[in-house]
Amino acid sequence: MPRIKVDHTKCTGCRHCEIACSLNHVANTANPRRARIRVMKDKNRYYPVLSGPFVDAACTSKQFIEIDGHQYDMCAFCRASCPEKPFFIEAETGIPLKCDFCGIPPAPSCVRWCNTGALELVED
Amino acid sequence: MNGWFGRCLRVNLTEGKHSIEELKPELLEKYLGGRGLGVKVYTDEVPPGTDPLSPGNKLIFSSGPLVGTGAVTGASCNVVTKSALSGTIACAKMRGHFGAEMKYAGFDMIIVEGRAEAPVILSIMDDRIKLSPAIEYWGRSTSESEDRFKASLDNQWAARETFLVTIGPAGERLLPIANIVSDRFLSVGGAGIGAVMGSKNLKAIAVKGQHSLEVADGNRFVQVVNTMINKLNSAPLNSQSMTQWGTAFLVGLCFPKKILPNNNFQHASVSLKQLGTDALESAFALRSRGCFACPVACIKKTEMKHHVYEGKGMVPTYLAIGSLGLNCGITSLSTIGTASMLCAEMGLDPVAAGGTLATAMELVEKKATTTDELKMDLQFGHDDGFLEALQLISTKKGYATRLGVGGKALAETFGRPDLFMGVKGMSMAPFDPRALQGMGLHFATCNYGPHHLYGYTFIDELLNVNEKLDPWSTDGKPALTKLYQDTTAVMDSLGLCNWLLMGLKFKNFVPLVNSCLGTNHTADDLLSIGERVWNAERLFNMKAGFDGTHDVLPRRFTEEPLSDGNGGGKISRVSEMLPEYYSLRGWSEQGEPTPGTLRALGLEDS
């Protein structure tokens, strides 16, 4: 089954994937807030986050991860959309968005426009 | 509207009021947006004789129609005003994410006019436009201001999506060599605009928005972008050199051709060992950061470890290595990196600051002044004195006041105006005009001082991408200079990055423009828009007191031959090329656009 692999060390934070997603899902429209992938930033690093499940309550398991002496906020790369982190919700309609693995096979639109290799389609 | 919003935000700081205006569709068609539209609105509204630092001057932030649509490298926002350093029109280009976020906030253009009584920050957050007091930000460095502003927001997620432009202490103190800084440490390309923002008591602008941008033909647009990404990947200069080292890769190419200036353009550089790409990689751990929608990502970030500056930093670019390094006799990459970070933190322009210090160093060397008189150890190759001076400039205290006024005024103070290397009061970008004749002509004629970002002639002269031209010869250079000046003007107006021209010919951008905007332009149509913008800027400069007599290079380049290497005996032959350049542009022998030219370009009423 093909999956999208995210390598955050290669992400340059250019947000081209957000626009690719938006243009592909909403006809002729470029708007990162309507994309199902968002590039999050935490401590000088960028994380492309694909939208996952929508939950209507904030979780109780907020955690911090320590890598190389830096504390990273788990919320920055959590895929869920919750009241604490209201991403992946259509501003106009309030409908939650979820990645549907779109695009012309074999690559979803975000992977096609990611030029650095941060997003990659892999078989497993 | 496709690509554009057609809306403009006008903020009057004197009254503390703002209004939203419609942009006229015929103007959008004629000037596209970005630099072109900014220049049009600015020249219509501001009299040419305005003092740059008076409340009557305006500061225009203008994003192009392709910005934020996902067009490859569509990120550039232009800042148009009258430069406090040169007195010419300034159309500095801003990289990063601010331009795109400004579009999502629903504005193609932000016009700032008047002067606030006390320091303010303008924030445009999801349609809430607000001027808030910025007294606690005043005097703080650019990165500190940005962090404080983001920390002051209630919602941490909103903070992550907010982008700022700020001025540093240099801009607040109205130094003519000050600059605006976007996205924490990206200098906006060009000096003299930080002081204008400072004179308006405007510390920063913050934007965040969620409006949708429309493109005319989405399917075709996506296909065109796919093709362009593939083409870019097969262009080694963009996909390998720029992606790996940023613009610093030019250092190794410019060195053997004697283009890198040394010690205030006295001679071409003699040593490269410490500054090549290998040295860059061993000096810093490089991490790529991209401007909005850029597949190249030429910005390189790193962790700086120097006793003067420690923390997040940016790896020096070609510009920094040339202006803040070799031209001041500095060859240590860690010093150059620190200097470029000091410039970003203080809001100084690297070219202008480096040029000023190089002038001061040569004044000392030529015994026009002494280090005791300057109270600073300014000598070629003295790293510590150089860094100390950079830190002191923006404090505007005591002896440092003399340096903050820019190289030209400094050289005049000590009676040696011939030691200032610049045109129209602006310091020269680190390309020796004796070794690149086309660049020399561009430096002499550029509307905004001698800056390579307004005419990329080195793409053909040095890198031989489209044509193989001899850098020493003057053959075909006037046409080349005109071509690149017009191309740059139209790319800026569209909001695209010009560095892509190293890998893609201009005609590749035409389908991108047409599928996005729903127009039927040809490459020639677009270039004629570029020519219109260039002439409009020239007209403004002429009314502001600049004419053909200002299209000259400093005497050093036309009288002192390059002394060393294979370029021995070469001088810049600008005066031979000027008549042909003027006639190609349709200008008179004195460099004035003729009525016929203006009519053909649709500029007769300005």
Describe what you observe in this structure.
The complex is a heterodimer of chains A (124) and B (606). Chain A is of the alpha+beta class and 124 residues long. Chain A has helices at residues 16-25, 74-77, 109-113; strands at 2-6, 29-30, 37-42, 45-50, 64-67, 70-73, 119-123. Chain A has one domain (2-123). Chain A is 15% helix and 26% strand. The longest helix of chain A is centred in the N-terminal third of the chain and has 10 residues, at 16-25. Chain B is α+β, with helices and mostly antiparallel strands. Chain B has 3 domains: 7-208, Aldehyde ferredoxin oxidoreductase, N-terminal domain (Aldehyde Ferredoxin Oxidoreductase,  A, domain 1, 4-Layer Sandwich); 240-427, Aldehyde Ferredoxin Oxidoreductase Protein, subunit A, domain 2, CATH 1.10.569.10; 437-503 and 522-601, Aldehyde Ferredoxin Oxidoreductase Protein, subunit A, domain 3 (Orthogonal Bundle). A 6-stranded mixed sheet of chain B has the order 2-1-6-3-4-5, with helices on both faces. The longest helix of chain B is centred in the C-terminal third of the chain and has 21 residues, at 523-543. The model of chain B has no long low-confidence stretch (mean pLDDT 91). The chains are: A alpha+beta (124), B alpha+beta (606). Chains A and B meet through α1, β2 and α3 of A and β13 and α8 of B. β2 (29-30) of chain A pairs antiparallel with β13 of chain B, so a sheet runs across the interface.
Largest interface: A-B, 31 and 36 residues
Please report which band the strand proportion of chain B falls in: under 5%, 5-15%, 15-25%, 25-35%, 35-45% or over 45%. Answer: 5-15%
Give the overall silhouette of chain B: globular
The biggest sheet of chain A amounts to: 2 strands, antiparallel
Q: Roughly what fraction of the amino acids of chain A lie in strands?
A: 25-35%
Q: Domains counted in the coordinates of chain A: how many?
A: 1
CATH architecture of the largest domain in chain B: 4-Layer Sandwich
Q: Average pLDDT value of chain A?
A: 85
Structural class of chain A: alpha+beta
Largest sheet of chain B: 6 strands, mixed
Oligomer kind: heterodimer
State the CATH topology of the largest domain in chain B: Aldehyde Ferredoxin Oxidoreductase,  A, domain 1
Across the major sheet of chain B, the strand order is 2-1-6-3-4-5
Model regions low in confidence, pLDDT < 50 over at least 5 residues of chain A = none
What is the alpha-carbon Rg of chain A in Å? 15 Å
Outline type of chain A: globular
Q: Please, how many domains of chain B?
A: 3
Secondary-structure content class of chain B: alpha+beta
Number of DSSP helical runs of chain B: 26
Distance between the termini of chain B: 27 Å
